[in-house]
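[recover] target loaded
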C-alpha cells in the first residue's frame, strides 16, 4: 500500500513539475504552457515558464558552457530584468531587450572593471560610470560602447 502511494506521488510530482528532455529545440513548441524543467542532450538546462512553445515569464537557463541567465523571458529571448554570467566570469545585472542588455544595468569583469549606466542593444550608451581595473573612474556619456570625450 505504501509503495503504491509512493509511486503515485512520484508520478504526480513529475506531471506537476513538467520535466522534459528535448534533443531538438523545436520540441519545446510541443510542451504544455506553464512551468517546465527542460534538459538538452548537450547539458543545457532551463527551469521556468513556457508559453506557446517559448520561454516566457520567469526562468533560469544554464548553458552547456556553464554560462547562466536568471530573470524574465519573452518569446524565447531574455527580456526585462535579469542577471547573466558568462564562462569568462563577466556578469551583467539589469534590463534586457530582445536578448541584449538594454536600459539601466551593470556589467562587471573579473579584472575589477565595472560599468554602471545605460545600455543600448548590448553596448554602453548614454549616461554611465566606468571604473577601470586601475581604480580610475570616468563618469559621463557613452556612445557605441565607448566614452564620449569633450
Amino acid at each position: 500500500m505504501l509503495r503504491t502511494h509512493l509511486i503515485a506521488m512520484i508520478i504526480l510530482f513529475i506531471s506537476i513539475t513538467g520535466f522534459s528532455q528535448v534533443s531538438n529545440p523545436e520540441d519545446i513548441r510541443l510542451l504544455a504552457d506553464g512551468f517546465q524543467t527542460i534538459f538538452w542532450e548537450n547539458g543545457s538546462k532551463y527551469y521556468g515558464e513556457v508559453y506557446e512553445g517559448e520561454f516566457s515569464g520567469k526562468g533560469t537557463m544554464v548553458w552547456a558552457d556553464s554560462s547562466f541567465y536568471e530573470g524574465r523571458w519573452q518569446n524565447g529571448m531574455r527580456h526585462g530584468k535579469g542577471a547573466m554570467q558568462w564562462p569568462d566570469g563577466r556578469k551583467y545585472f539589469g534590463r534586457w531587450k530582445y536578448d541584449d542588455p538594454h536600459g539601466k544595468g551593470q556589467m562587471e569583469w573579473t579584472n575589477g572593471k565595472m560599468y554602471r549606466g545605460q545600455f543600448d542593444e548590448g553596448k554602453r550608451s548614454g549616461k554611465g560610470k566606468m571604473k577601470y581595473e586601475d581604480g580610475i573612474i570616468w563618469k559621463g556619456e557613452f556612445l557605441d560602447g565607448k566614452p564620449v570625450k569633450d
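[recover] notes: Confidence is low (pLDDT under 50) at residues 5-17.
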